[in-house]
């Protein structure tokens, strides 16, 4: 079940104007370990994976984000610190991306946007069946 929010036309245009739509091909590296995560990603279609590599190169998947889910390395994003993780598109994916300052502005400016983000973030913590 997709979450919905009602935005005024002006709010919707502001949200849209501060986002960037990107189509990632399958296999695209969205975030590389050691880089700072400066974006919040909303998956419109497709599938992203957050994972880390151990010293021997073995992969450990921590999170998947599919349609209507958020993806980022929250620690790197919040602290502006180098990421310990990688994010890859494991399917061709259509996403919306907001730079940190634009996303923070929207959360403060549009209460319905903040509520939608919080609801979708909470749902991403629940195992899908």
From TrEMBL:
Pfam families: cNMP_binding. PROSITE patterns: CNMP_BINDING_3 (PS50042). InterPro entries: cNMP-bd_dom (IPR000595), cNMP-bd_dom_sf (IPR018490), RmlC-like_jellyroll (IPR014710). CDD domains: CAP_ED (cd00038). Residues 2-108 form the Cyclic nucleotide-binding domain. SUPFAM superfamilies: cAMP-binding domain-like. This is Cyclic nucleotide-binding domain-containing protein. It comes from Pedobacter segetis. The lineage of its organism: Bacteria, Pseudomonadati, Bacteroidota, Sphingobacteriia, Sphingobacteriales.
């Amino acid at each position: 079940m997709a979450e919905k929010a009602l935005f005024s036309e002006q709010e919707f245009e502001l949200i849209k104007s501060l986002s960037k739509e990107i189509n990632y091909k399958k296999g695209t590296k969205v975030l590389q370990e050691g880089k700072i995560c400066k974006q919040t990603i909303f998956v419109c279609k497709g599938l992203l994976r957050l994972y880390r590599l151990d010293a021997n190169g073995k992969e450990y998947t921590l999170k998947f984000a599919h349609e209507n889910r958020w993806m980022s390395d929250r620690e790197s994003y919040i602290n502006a610190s180098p990421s310990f993780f990688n994010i890859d598109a494991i399917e061709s994916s259509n996403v919306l991306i907001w730079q940190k300052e634009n996303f923070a502005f929207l959360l403060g400016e549009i209460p319905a946007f903040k509520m939608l983000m919080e609801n979708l973030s909470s749902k991403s913590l629940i195992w899908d069946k």
